[in-house]
Amino acid sequence: MSRRLNKSMGMCLPCLGGAADDVVVTPDPETRRQQLAEAAEKRQKETAYRGVKNPEAVERKRKKQEEAEKQAMSTSVSGGGGGLKWQVG
């Protein structure tokens, strides 16, 4: 019976021989936090552009529209209300 136990135990030992090599070192909390933030950002981008054939074009168009709105806002503020000027006198 002891021979039988040794034989079965011997079969498991090769599995455990490389266990020390398979240990994954956990990164420090700051590195881990950064990795999680990057993964979350990647998932958000994938979700936002799901079904869009060319996400870069959508992003360029959005930025161009923001620039146009920004330009319109700065023009209306500096122009004093739509470009109309009152002259008295």
TrEMBL record:
<dbReference type="GO" id="GO:1904153">
    <property type="term" value="P:negative regulation of retrograde protein transport, ER to cytosol"/>
</dbReference>
<dbReference type="GO" id="GO:0005789">
    <property type="term" value="C:endoplasmic reticulum membrane"/>
</dbReference>
<keyword id="KW-0564">Palmitate</keyword>
<keyword id="KW-0519">Myristate</keyword>
<dbReference type="GO" id="GO:0010508">
    <property type="term" value="P:positive regulation of autophagy"/>
</dbReference>
<protein>
    <submittedName>
        <fullName>Uncharacterized protein</fullName>
    </submittedName>
</protein>
<feature type="compositionally biased region" description="Basic and acidic residues">
    <location>
        <begin position="56"/>
        <end position="70"/>
    </location>
</feature>
<feature type="region of interest" description="Disordered">
    <location>
        <begin position="30"/>
        <end position="89"/>
    </location>
</feature>
<feature type="compositionally biased region" description="Basic and acidic residues">
    <location>
        <begin position="30"/>
        <end position="48"/>
    </location>
</feature>
<dbReference type="InterPro" id="IPR055366">
    <property type="entry name" value="SVIP_metazoa"/>
</dbReference>
<feature type="compositionally biased region" description="Gly residues">
    <location>
        <begin position="78"/>
        <end position="89"/>
    </location>
</feature>
<dbReference type="GO" id="GO:1904240">
    <property type="term" value="P:negative regulation of VCP-NPL4-UFD1 AAA ATPase complex assembly"/>
</dbReference>
<keyword id="KW-0449">Lipoprotein</keyword>
<dbReference type="GO" id="GO:1904293">
    <property type="term" value="P:negative regulation of ERAD pathway"/>
</dbReference>
<dbReference type="Pfam" id="PF15811">
    <property type="entry name" value="SVIP"/>
</dbReference>
<dbReference type="InterPro" id="IPR031632">
    <property type="entry name" value="SVIP"/>
</dbReference>
